[in-house]
Specification:
single chain; mainly alpha; Four Helix Bundle (Hemerythrin (Met), subunit A); 6 helices; binds ascorbic acid
Length: about 150
């Protein structure tokens, strides 16, 4: 049973890693892709944050829809942090690849907070949304502090 479980784990780790490399023909394509995904995520998260901060009128339906899109986008950038893509048009720090476990943990923290935001936004309680916008923005910032230049 243990042997089978580790075999299944190893096989799934391979299927996760292989398409990530194969998905992009050139390093620049991976860089463009992850920046695009993060830009779209930030736009939709930003609309929820603007409602939470009173910079935009609160609309429960729009908050839920924007948070759901941000959650979907939050899953996409990571496969594009391919080895060797710390050069070129990117602010990615080499620490992403030197300390992979920490980077993955930070990315998973953000995805988890984005998932919570989508759930809370569905509920439509503005105070709960405000609190979760804070937690989610904190996870964005923590990863930028350690892994993004400037
Ligand atoms: C945003 C956005 C980020 C984060 C970060 C939080 O809205 O685009 O990158 O929040 O600024 O500190």
């Amino acid at each position: 049973m243990k042997v089978l479980a580790s075999f299944v784990l190893a096989a799934s780790a391979f299927t996760l890693a292989a398409p990530a490399q194969a998905q992009f023909a050139k390093p620049e394509d991976a860089i463009k892709y992850r920046k695009a995904a993060l830009t779209v995520m930030a736009a939709h998260f930003g609309r929820v944050a603007a409602m939470a901060n009173g910079r935009m009128p609160f609309d429960a339906g729009a908050a839920a829809s924007n948070a759901a899109t941000a959650e979907t986008m939050s899953k996409l950038p990571w496969a594009a942090f391919v080895e060797g893509t710390d050069k070129g048009e990117t602010k990615a720090k080499p620490e992403i690849w030197a300390d992979k476990a920490k980077f993955i943990a930070a990315s998973e923290k953000m995805q988890g907070e984005m998932t919570k935001l989508a759930a809370v936004a569905k509920g439509g309680n503005i105070d709960a949304i405000k609190a979760q916008v804070g937690a989610t923005g904190g996870a964005c910032k923590a990863c930028h502090d350690d892994f993004r230049k400037e």
